[in-house]
Amino acid sequence: DRDTDKKRIEELLEENMVLEIAQKQSMNESAHLGWELEQLSKSTDLADSEKSFVFELNECASSRILKLEKDNQSLQNTIQELRDASLTSRESSLKFVELEKENQQLSKKIEKLQNQIEKEKQSNQDLETLIEELIKDKEQLQVVMGTLKADKDRQVQTSQMSYKST
Fold first, then answer.
1. Cβ–Cβ < 8 Å for 72, 23
2. Could you give the CA distance from residue 66 to residue 26 in angstroms, rounded to a whole number?
3. Distance between CA 128 and CA 35 in Å, rounded?
4. 77: Cβ–Cβ under 8 A, 6 or more apart, which residues?
5. How far apart are alpha carbons 26 and 18 in whole angstroms?
6. Is residue 157 exposed (0-12), middle (13-18) or buried (19+ Cβ within 10 Å)?
7. Dist. CA 100–CA 87, nearest whole Å
8. With b meaning 16 or more CB within 10 Å and e meaning fewer, what string describes 47-82?
């Protein structure tokens, strides 16, 4: 029974490490997305509402990641307690079942976070497209304004010449 328990602990540790790696990857992706969003907001004249939307997305992702980190740390502490304590076989089995359930829940949370990150990536791409369109529109409007100003200046000069000749 102890050998089985030890093997199960090792399996759970491996599973936990895999979850930690996935969590760190999610955190890195989220941080990178946050950086990209920050760069986008710096490089354009977006409305404050768009900036706050990006900020809220980053805060939401960060909050979820922190919660997952806490859950993961709790699982690690429980595993360590199981190693340190000399529990009976039955108590160990019950604890392992409980840990397995917690690991499954953590896996689901990580999957949800990854889905959220994918949605945020798509949203960021949509925002980038919108920004590019806005920049093109702005440039076109600047060209039109330049043309209109030049036409107005010519009309003023023509009017002044006409006025001086009379």
1. yes
2. 11
3. 14
4. none
5. 12
6. exposed
7. 17
8. eeebbebbeebbeebeebbeebeebbeebeeebeeb
Cα–Cα distance, 31 to 97 (Å, whole number): 34
Tens digit of pLDDT for each residue in 90-99? 666 788 888 8
Token pair 């992706």 in the structure block, residue: 29
* pTM of the entire predicted model: 0.38
Q: Bigger pLDDT: 77 or 135?
A: 135
Give CA–CA dist 166/164, Å, rounded: 5
* Contact status, residue 106 vs residue 68, Cβ threshold 8 Å: yes
Distance CA 105, CA 44 (A): 40
